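Can't paste images in this forum, so I'm doing it all in text. The chain is below; anyone willing to post the predicted structure tokens underneath?
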Amino acid sequence: MNELKKRAGLILDAPDADTNSKLLKICQLLDQEVDYYNWTGFYFRNGEKEELILGPYVGAETDHTIIPFGKGICGQVAVSGETFVVPDVHAQDNYLSCSIDTKSEIVVPIFKDGKNIGQIDIDSHKIDPFTKADEELLQWICQEVGKLL
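Text version of the structure:
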């Protein structure tokens, strides 16, 4: 994970790329380098509305381009502001299915000036693959992304 962190840092620090390009490259890096990441994307608060709007992502198309606060795992993280790891999505009552292949999910919030402005969302086709190292890497990425925005 340290190598991934280093490579993510290089992407985020690139002086010539715009923010959306950097975020897409982060999604691509994670998707290519972590075999159990099967959908990787960013959601951001839609202005002052109580909803999230889909940003850059890698993976299958999703119908969930707008998610109301409180709905699904992403909507819950928008309200709680806390990382949410779901080892088995089928055990969750408030889960929005993006793909029948998705078995687990991790969502990590992004803060700017103390305000929850978005999140990174990762789905996996494996049950319970996410480790403390995943959480730490994704929290670091989200902290760095918050500085960009």
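The longest strand covers residues 115-124. Residues 69 and 100 are 23 Å apart (CA to CA).
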